[in-house]
């Protein structure tokens, strides 16, 4: 019997099987011996131990299309990053770090600014201008006023989407609008494992409809770019692409070099100043990390 891991806690994995429901499973010892750990999002084969109690064992993990390390989830094909358009003011540096992290893993991103009803038209226009050149889909929603929810649901249809964002932006409210049964599903799992209230310390997968799932993922406050050279960073900023090869020096990293086409484009307003500032901040951090490696 095949299903998908919806949540994993303390060695138990909760596997949803279409038409049959949710099974509490343990992973067979062979996975531990092979140092393979099942991940939320994995498609798996299970054997039923007790149909009445919905208990079983995971006996096989099917091949993964993708595997993210932070958060540790499998088979994601797009990411939805949610920030508030206002209250709190969006931390664009944090958003840009997430975009770089997903670009490094070849995951498409939908940028969603929620609470549009609390932002001025000027603020919304500014956010649209900043991210116009980054090639990510950009949505503005209001969970409170139910604006943009249907459009967002359309973008999630047929995908396995990881959802991320800082606290206070309406992420949980949006998820509950998209998946009305989310609270009920969480309650069932919490009741079964006697862990009390659900928290977002663990990644959890919610089913929207057949073939469409979203992850609610924890650990969004720190997004460190690991195993990345500073010279590679420019490739994660799509706004720079059309200017590659137009700089005076080959291999220009668009920081201090004279005759840099990217810096000129920033001054002329063709590239967002905010995006370029995020780039330089990340570049300096990678530069410092590189220096520490050789101390």
Plain-language structure description:
The chain has 295 residues and is of the alpha/beta class. 28% of the residues lie in helices and 25% in strands. The strands form three sheets. A six-stranded mixed β-sheet has the order 10-9-8-11-13-12, sandwiched between helices. A five-stranded mixed beta barrel has the order 1-2-3-5-4. It has a two-stranded antiparallel sheet with strand order 6-7. Helix 2 packs across helix 8.
CA-CA gap between termini: 54 Å
* Strand proportion: 25-35%
Computed over alpha carbons, the radius of gyration is 21 Å
Structural class: alpha/beta
Helical content stands at 25-40%
How would you write the strand order of the largest sheet?
10-9-8-11-13-12
What order do the helices and strands follow?
Answer: EEEHEEEEEHEHEHEHHEEHH
Question: How many separate helices?
Answer: 8
Q: Please state the second-level CATH architecture of the largest domain.
A: 3-Layer(aba) Sandwich
Shape: globular
Q: Might you state the CATH topology name of the largest domain?
A: Rossmann fold
Q: CATH top level of the largest domain?
A: Alpha Beta
What is the number of beta strands?
Answer: 13
What is the count of distinct domains? 3
The CATH fourth-level homologous superfamily of the largest domain: P-loop containing nucleotide triphosphate hydrolases
Q: Write down the overall mean pLDDT.
A: 87
Residue ranges: pLDDT <50 for 5 or more in a row? 184-189, 193-200
């Amino acid at each position: 019997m095949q299903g998908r891991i919806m949540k994993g806690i303390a060695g138990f994995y909760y596997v949803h099987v279409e038409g049959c429901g949710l099974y509490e499973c343990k992973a067979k010892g062979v996975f531990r011996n092979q140092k393979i750990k099942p991940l939320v999002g994995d498609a798996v084969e299970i054997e039923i131990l007790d149909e009445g109690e919905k208990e079983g064992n995971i006996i096989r993990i099917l091949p993964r299309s993708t595997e993210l390390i932070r958060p540790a989830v499998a088979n994601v094909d797009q990411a939805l990053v949610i920030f508030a358009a206002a209250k709190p003011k969006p931390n664009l540096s944090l958003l840009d770090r997430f975009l770089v992290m997903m670009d490094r893993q070849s995951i498409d991103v939908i940028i969603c600014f929620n609470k549009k009803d609390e932002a001025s038209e000027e603020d919304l226009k500014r956010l649209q201008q900043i991210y116009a050149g980054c090639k990510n889909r950009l949505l503005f929603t209001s969970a409170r006023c139910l604006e943009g929810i249907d459009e967002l649901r359309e973008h999630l249809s047929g995908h396995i989407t990881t959802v991320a964002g800082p606290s206070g932006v309406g992420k949980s409210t949006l998820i509950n609008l998209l998946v009305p049964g989310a609270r009920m599903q969480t309650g069932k799992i919490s009741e079964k494992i006697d862990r009390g209230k659900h928290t977002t310390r663990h990644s959890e997968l919610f089913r929207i409809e057949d073939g469409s799932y979203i992850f609610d993922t924890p650990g969004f406050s720190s997004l460190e770019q690991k195993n990345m050279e500073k010279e590679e960073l420019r490739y994660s900023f799509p706004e720079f692409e059309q200017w590659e090869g137009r700089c005076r020096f080959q291999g220009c990293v668009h920081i201090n070099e004279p005759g840099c086409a990217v810096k000129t484009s920033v001054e002329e307003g063709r590239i967002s100043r905010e995006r370029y500032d995020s780039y330089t901040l990340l570049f300096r951090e990678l530069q410092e990390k590189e220096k520490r490696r050789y101390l």
